[in-house]
Design brief:
There is one protein chain. The protein is of the alpha/beta class. Helix content is 24%, strand content 21%. β6 and β7 form a beta hairpin. The structure holds iron/sulfur cluster (2 copies). The site of one iron/sulfur cluster (SF4) has 10 residues, from α6.
Length: 188
């Protein structure tokens, strides 16, 4: 799954002018699971605009990162092409997919804005208790091709170290406070 966080620092009121109409596209899969696009979050975003901006539609869709799915759901939404601003509650893949789809649908020369208060953090697996474990933190310098480790050592390391195990180790366990009982991710 893709882990996302809501950007609480982004002031949406600064981004969208008063009176501009809004359309909200929310991912009902990963982003909803991480509460950046669930029903509560959608209501929170709508409430920010209150009587200041009209919300033309809210589209909650499974995997908007798949444009075929997004297109199927969006086709039935009234006012989809009329929004002045689209707020995308999804990971970077969902945002890109939605942005491309909207651009494709809108007539050339039409003015509209696309904004997302959601940040993509990492690629995670969820265990049976629902606890997430980082699988990739998008470090930008992938070592996977040269690593024989079962899981990415960078993502599994508490400080996301990219250049091998800490030399200050006295044993095979992690040197970081709070993680001493965990084997160094680079030694799997
Ligand atoms: S090294 Fe690990 S964290 Fe970095 S890009 Fe590759 S899989 Fe992702
Ligand atoms: S000892 Fe801990 S902090 Fe250092 S590389 Fe290994 S997992 Fe990362």
């Amino acid at each position: 799954m893709i882990k996302t966080v809501f950007d609480e620092k982004l002031n949406l009121l600064n981004e969208i002018p008063a009176g501009a109409s809004i359309g909200i596209i929310a991912c009902a899969d990963c982003a909803a699971a991480f509460k950046t696009a669930d029903t509560r979050r959608i209501e929170q975003v709508k409430k920010i605009f209150g009587g200041r901006n009209e919300t033309l539609f809210t589209l909650s869709v499974n995997s908007p990162c798949d444009r075929r799915v997004l297109a199927q759901f969006a086709a039935a939404v009234r006012g989809f092409d009329k929004a002045d601003c689209y707020i995308i509650l999804a990971c970077e893949a969902g945002r890109r997919s939605a942005a491309e789809y909207i651009a494709q649908r809108r007539k050339s020369g039409e003015d509209f804005k696309i904004i997302s208060p959601v940040k993509t953090v990492s690629y995670v697996s969820l265990d049976c208790s629902g606890v997430s474990h980082e699988a990739c933190v998008f470090c930008g310098e992938c070592v996977r091709s040269s690593s024989a480790a079962a899981a990415c050592p960078v993502a599994a390391c508490p400080i996301n170290k990219k250049d091998g195990p800490c030399q200050s180790r006295a044993n095979d366990f992690c040197v970081i406070e709070g993680f001493e009982s965990r084997r160094c991710s680079w030694l799997y």
